[in-house]
């Protein structure tokens, strides 16, 4: 146990016998140290302290003003301003979209209006041709009752062409390009006017009925009229009327107003059944031709006229 005791230096713990001697020794030690230096300072190496440049720079202190507590009014006004900004943006977008749709609707209306006007003119011409054909059939019905079949007049030949031979001048085929585009592309939604939408629906039905009726006409014509042409028509007269590269329709109109007389001869007169021919023509005139004009084409004309009027009113068209 004694081996672990610390060894004490006797010189360090020895107290001076004379206090004055201690003082003289201290003064002697102090003389060896430069004035203003301590013992510790003399023993330690001199260090150089560099002041950072930031200490010489002027430092600005920004004062932060403390805001007072916000009340409900400030929140309300902030919300109101945000709401108005969003709402105004929505209105602007809505107005732009509405303008685009309105401009698109007017563009479609113009094209549709032009198509309807052309069809209206065409339908009027077709109705006139049908009236001419009906008049020709009435003439032939009256003629076949008791008039000569071997010595026919120029008037008979012209009415035979209009009443029995002609088919194309009476066919009415409405244009449906714009109508189909409106329906198939979904562009009908641009027409906000309910009356317009209803009229377009009526027009679609009327056009379908016209086409269906004319198909029925063709079937009846093949059954009742074409046999008359095959058995009794003068195809030499037909060939003469197709001269000069013109259609027979153009040449017949010119022939009608000219002084020229071209012979016309009914073929197979001995097989000509007057009553059977009269019955065929009466049936075709009353039950087929006139019905199409008076019901189906007339209905189309009425819807067409109302639709044109509504388009003019809605989109200020002329």
Percentage beta strand? under 5%
Number of strands: 0
Outline type: rod-shaped
Radius of gyration: 58 Å
What is the element string, with H for helices and E for strands?
Answer: HHHHHHHHHH
**Tally of DSSP helical segments:** 10
Return residue spans where pLDDT drops below 50 for at least 5 consecutive residues. 1-17, 27-45, 59-64
Largest sheet: none
Mean pLDDT: 82
The N- to C-terminal Cα distance equals: 131 Å
Helix content: 55-70%
Structural class by helix and strand composition: mainly alpha
Plain-language structure description:
With 318 residues, the protein is an all-alpha fold. The protein has a domain of 201 residues. It is built from ten helices and no strands. Helix 4 runs antiparallel to helix 10. The longest helix is centred in the middle third of the chain and has 75 residues. The chain is rod-shaped. The N terminus is likely disordered.
Structural key phrases:
0% strand, mainly alpha
Which secondary structure elements does this structure contain, and how are they paired or packed?
Elements lengths: L9 H4 L5 H13 L7 H5 L28 H75 L7 H12 L11 H8 L9 H39 L2 H6 L7 H10 L16 H42 L3
Helix pairs in contact: 4-5, 4-6, 4-10, 7-10
Quick gist of this model?
The protein has helices at residues 10-13, 19-31, 39-43, 72-146, 154-165, 177-184, 194-232, 235-240, 248-257, 274-315. With 318 residues, the protein is mostly helical. Helix 4 (72-146) packs antiparallel against helix 6 (177-184), helix 4 runs antiparallel to helix 10 (274-315) and helix 7 packs antiparallel against helix 10.
